[in-house]
Fold:
Amino acid sequence: MGGDNTHSGAPQPVQPSLAFLKLNKTASKQSKSTYNVVSETMAFKSQISDVVNQLYDIGGLKFGDFVIKSGRRSPIYVDLRVIISHPKLMNEISKLMWDFASSNIQKCDSLCGVPYTALPIATLISARQEIPMLIRRKEAKGYGTKKLIEGDINAGESCVIIEDVVTTGSSVLETVADLRKEGLVVTDAIVIVDREQGGPKNLEKEGINCHSVCTLMQMMDILKASGKVDDLMLEKVQAYLQDNNDSTPVYPVTKVNKRTISFETRAEKAPCEVSKNLLQLMARKRSNLCVAADVGSASDLLEIAKQVGPYICVLKTHADVTANFTQDVADDLILLAQQMDFMILEDRKFADIGNTVAKQYSGGYFDISRWADLVTVHSLPGEGVLQAIQGESEKLGAPRGCFLLAEMSSEGNLITMEYIKGTTQMATKYPKIVAGLVCQSLLLADQVGLVQLTPGVRRGEVKEDGLGQQWVTPEEAVIDKGGDVIVVGRGVTAAKNPAVEAKLYRDDLWAAYEKRILA
Ligand code: 6AU
Structure:
């Protein structure tokens, strides 16, 4: 391990925080004397502090601007994968986890680490305590036994989950669901870090006691006391937690979960005519691909539409980036959309007062409402924007809808959890006109009629464009982020042969959707 894992400077005394007192209450053994409890508590506290400092030293705790698994942004990234290069620390952590939690766990016939980071930790505990281990595959094997859980499964026996970090608890719950399917009894999870974003609460709802060695703020207190983070970073993390203190899991498992419902079934439940039509179109055409045709000339726009038309459910335009975008061009687009069965989404991102938006939407140079089935709208100005779009579409008498922007794919955007919540509330208040949300994580998981439009998708090694855009793979967008309609721009338009590329994206995206609904 060398110098890597040693403290930088002498260990500093750590100030006890309220959070610690709370933590130690759960660690106390009911049967012990007060003296023993206090001394054990002090011992845990110093071990936890030691481990947190070492984790910082080896780069397991990073500070900056990160996108975490849920798609949310965070000033701190807890990446405990690095511990595999530091076996002494890994051993200490596994020992601490077990010593800390085991006295509060009634029964443990087996252990199961959540893949992948927690697997070696579970292995160490298993070997030391001589408790059998189970491994849950992320995907079932396509050959041989096709088993999802490896190891001896004895239905009725108890299995304890081992996890490194818990945020909303969704990863633990996925593992729990698979173990319970096998008849195992799962009531406890031992976790190193609770990111304080509702994880333990969500687990409790599913009958799981979460024994977390440390919370995010406890870690911050320790690092502050060691001089490893300053007041500013402490405040940043505090503000982030306040902003993201939402106990709704991003992937709820008990509620109706639209991820696993087919587009056909969701169409039946959609209150907005356009989202109903769109979901039906997607099912009929077997496509969840939207191509963003951000091209500079009207002829290029029509050419792209012709080439990708057979493979898409939606063509997304930015009329204001296309020179010579006239109403004749719009008429040609409508014709292509009818011939090739796709919808037109003008990505106008309206963000003004209702009165102005009504004029920008109907009339003016672009007269958007005449030719676009759908538009994008920012929730920032409030409900007036939606009232304007709804009012204009009623005058028109044709089905029209909009996508509200709840989250953005661009780095450093200022959207907060409060903003997302407000946006989703707005969406549910206007069910006739809001066809869905533009977002990066599964919001309104139980609102089956709302379509999730997820941009920021491109295959290949390059994951960003140097101007803030961040790309994920087609599979990540559909499976991890829960996207229904996936927006691909340059991934298709910058390709040598956009038609071939669109077909490839369509095939991959549809396969991911089929996999998702079978999950
Ligand atoms: O695949 P790209 O990066 O070439 O293009 C992505 C497209 C662009 C963006 O204006 C749009 O998706 N977009 C949106 C939308 C659809 O509103 C929101 C967002 O958060 N990120 C994003 O890229 O046309």
